[in-house]
Design brief:
Blueprint lengths: L2 H7 L3 H57 L7 E2 L2 H5 L11 E7 L2 E6 L11 H10 L7 H14 L4 H18 L9 H16 L3 H5 L4 H49 L1 H14 L5 H19 L1
Antiparallel strand pairs: 1-2, 2-3
Helix pairs in contact: 1-2, 5-6, 5-7, 5-9, 6-7, 10-11
């Protein structure tokens, strides 16, 4: 507004101040209204953007959950019975899986129902994991084959046990082609020792497990033979140790005899410097005289 026009229109100074105050208040109210309108519009725009962002986030999470539940492109549904039966989900009833879900850089199997990651991975990794698992010796025929191998080979060294393990691995692999078997020499030796311990304790149920009565009788006979041959090996080792001990004793006696013949020479050669250096080497004289007295006693005897 123009102050000059307003001053011309007013007849007095009081009227001019009154109209000026009214005009300023009107201008202030209009400014407040405009600022409030702008604030509301900005708030509405921000809330709209926020709602759109939340909606997009919800949609993305739903798509991600759906992609986890259904196999994506290039992924096959896990229909392998071996993997399904060996799934270690928390709930044993959940046997349906989706394969090759990438998490932490690994391909894993996830249960469709409880969505827990299974301990076993894909089929190739499952077979590799079974290779590393220890052999459980499930049937009596496995123990019988081990006993036959042991009684034929009579192993003593670790290399002998390793040969037995290699032979049994091939044999057991033909009995169950679906399950790879990789035995170790140490495992075969420990299994043989456990069978012998059970046989000595007359644990018939632990030995029998599965198989016929004839197989059990044959296994018992083989274990008796194994125990006998192990006792023979132990006795042979004890005898060998005794022989080596006797040889050392004979060598010791021969050394004493040779020293006996050298006693006169040693007395004439050694006593002179000892007597001359009695004050400096008195500690040497005592063990030599003692040794001579012992040798003299043995000569007398």
């Amino acid at each position: 507004f123009n102050k000059t026009d307003l001053r011309v229109q007013c007849s007095s100074h009081a009227e001019y101040r009154h109209k000026l105050t009214q005009q300023i208040s009107v201008e202030i109210q209009s400014l407040i209204t405009i600022s409030f309108t702008i604030t509301i519009s900005l708030y509405l725009q921000f809330s709209a953007i926020l709602h759109i962002t939340i909606s997009i986030t919800i949609i993305c999470s739903g798509v991600q959950a759906a992609s986890r539940e259904l196999p994506m492109e290039g992924q096959n549904e896990c229909k392998d019975e071996m993997i399904s039966n060996n799934c270690f989900c928390i709930r044993s009833s959940h046997r349906t899986h989706t394969g090759n879900v990438n998490e932490m850089g690994r391909s894993v199997h996830r249960c469709r129902n409880c969505r827990k990651i299974c301990n076993f991975l894909d089929a190739a990794e499952l077979l590799n994991s079974q290779n590393t698992m220890p052999f459980r010796w499930p049937d009596l025929r496995h123990n019988l084959a081990l006993a036959n191998k042991v009684i034929k080979s009579r192993p003593e060294k670790p290399s002998d046990w390793q040969k037995i393990a290699e032979g049994l691995s091939g044999l057991f692999g033909t009995w169950s082609p679906d399950i790879p078997v990789d035995l170790k020499g140490r495992g075969c030796r420990e299994r043989s020792d456990r069978l012998l311990a059970k046989h000595k304790n007359d644990e018939a149920k632990a030995l029998k497990r599965s198989g016929t009565e004839e197989d059990y009788s044959e296994l018992s006979q083989l274990l008796d033979d194994i125990a006998t041959y192990k006792e023979d090996i132990q006795n042979a080792r004890i005898k060998e140790k005794k022989q080596t001990g006797n040889k050392h004793c004979i060598k010791g006696k021969e050394g004493i005899l040779t020293v006996k013949f050298l006693v006169p020479q040693m007395t004439t050669e050694v006593h002179l410097p000892i007597m001359q250096q009695k004050e400096n080497k008195s500690d040497i004289q005592i063990p030599i005289s003692n040794s001579f007295s012992i040798l003299e006693d043995e000569l007398v005897n």
